[in-house]
Amino acid sequence: MATLVNLPPAVSNTSNRDPYKYQWARYVARAQLDKKFTLINEKISGKQNLPAATTISQLMDRVQELLPGESKLTGEAPTDRKKLHVGIVGAGCAGLFTAMTLDFVNQHIKSEDLQITYDILEAADDSRLGGRLYTHHFSKDTELPHDYYDVGAMRFPENDYLGLTKENGGLVPYYLDDYKKVCPTYFNDKRYVGGPSEGALDPYGVNADYKDGDPKGIPKELLTKDPGKIVETAIEPFVTALKGDMDIGSVDGWKLLEAADYMSTRQFFRSTDLQDDLPTVERPLKRPYNFNTIEWLETFAYATGWYNQSLAETVLEALDFGVEEPTSVDNTKWLCVEGGTQKVARLMADKLVKKPELNRQVTKISTDQTGTMTLTIKHADEPSAPTETRDYFAVFNSTTLGALQRMDLKDAGLRYGTKQAIRSLGYGASCKVGMKFKKAWWMKEPHNINSGGVAKTDRPTRVCVYPSYNIHDDYEKPAVLLCSYTWAQDAQRIGTLISNPTNSKHETELKELLLNDLALLHSTPDTYKALRAELEELYDDHHAWDWYNDPNMSGAFAYFGPGQFSNMWPEIIQQNGWLFLIGEAASAHHAWIVGALESAIRGVYQMLDALLLQSPEHDPYRDAMKLLQDPYLKEDLPFGPLPLEIPKRQAGEDRKAPKTDVPAKGVSLTFTSAQVLLSFLEKTVEEAEAKVA
């Protein structure tokens, strides 16, 4: 039976198709590789007055002929190819998993052939080990085992995409839906328990200011429907197009999604763009939707400003993370970690050969002509201590891009495309407030909310989450409620009331606001005052967190705007010399733990591939790559096979044709080898151009 530490497998796949996000990522990665190959090819062939190279291997030979004095085109080799020392920046999920992966390689490759040692440098103290795997405990009272809430990641879909099952140990059902129809909603000062009756026309009165047929109002045929279902129907044509692609082996649907990536979801709803290109699907209302309809959909289904993200992101989220809608509390499709998600990070750290170094903030990443990577480190727990520098063969940076941007990177050898992605890739705002009460009042009469679920409102609280891990506890004992969970602009606004550790000026106002919203959600006009007074009496404590106000994060999760995935994601996953960017932002499954895990595997695999390109005769590199490729070689593999977002072949290549990891006449390079080699060629050409300039 798997243990909790084995919770982070890479995504498994038991269906007949690869998840859409993986297919989309492979399409984007191949397209970007083609573009870069063409660009470098044109530069080199123009200078040599020769026909363009037809393969990356041929291009490498051309570059070598043109720039014979440049350094080795596959990068600088390690001083000792059998012993490598790497730096891992950040002890979040991706950083810890990178170390686990290296430990695994070391365990199965003879130490005299290959040994990879590492340092994990974490800016925070032990309370924040795990980064965004963060659980706040209100006390250490062992008689109150559920005296906590997850400030960061808190739920996992039980499907192939996370490879989680209830047998993983330490996992308990997470009840997201209102199975018993007892959770309240409160919009436009109108309250319902269990939602409005089916078919009710404009139950929240959002159309009261408009007469029937007014072009500014929300169409009557929509007001009786679930806003979430309307959104699903609106993007259904993309689903039809992509499924059709898989049936006939076409890429037309992906080209359509590429066009959609340059639109925001709001723009799509507001226009007729792509209307003629999409398959015809019956829907309650054809686009364009008017302003108020779009606002209504966004308010009821998502968060204020959420539709500013790329349309492709909205489509893919619906496709890949939609889980089958359960019909009862007994077959929920979601899970959470008993004891809090940070428990996963602690168990991961416990398994490591070398533990993370805490309070070690990396302030600078640099490299030199030898390819050596140097980290400058500040001792956060010793303000008067001088900074230190450490040299590594390679560096894996797992911090958020916001935290990375604040480091001194001028000598890190970054391409402009990577610098641009670090600076401008969107990160979503998110805040949570956990509130501890002397009793679990929401589980008792008259509320009876004792099977999880969520309450929704247009009040500042926006979403109240009823925990699933404490539903079997004694209602008369203290309990924790996630009374507010916000994203986007809603989070930015409530975040102004969330104090930092040294200033609690606005905490009283935040408490009053949330208690008031809770009372409105859970009472009628006749019972409001009594419930408000009861909540004041039952209140014990609260803890609030704004992820944008966390200096080690500067944002909750990657939130790709229009065009950003197509253009910036490939720049993030392409190595810069011996610097590898990992973390959820560097994955097709950004904003999910699985994305962080898969990015770690991708980074380690790229490093091994680059080493093999330098020393094709050194079999341990190839053996290590095989360990990561095949999940069935070793029973104790801490993950599944290579992430499916990594293409195995280049664009246009026959999937059945042989591939090679090193240049060989007449045989195409694998995608990763081509990507790694092209990254070195690109850097060589750019450096040569800089010398001429």
TrEMBL record:
GO terms for biological process: amino acid catabolic process. Residues 94-606 form the Amine oxidase domain. Gene3D superfamilies: 1.10.10.1620, 3.90.660.10, FAD/NAD(P)-binding domain. SUPFAM superfamilies: FAD-linked reductases, C-terminal domain, FAD/NAD(P)-binding domain. InterPro entries: Amino_oxidase, FAD/NAD-bd_sf, Flavin_monoamine_oxidase. GO terms for molecular function: L-amino-acid oxidase activity. This is Amine oxidase domain-containing protein. It comes from Lophium mytilinum.
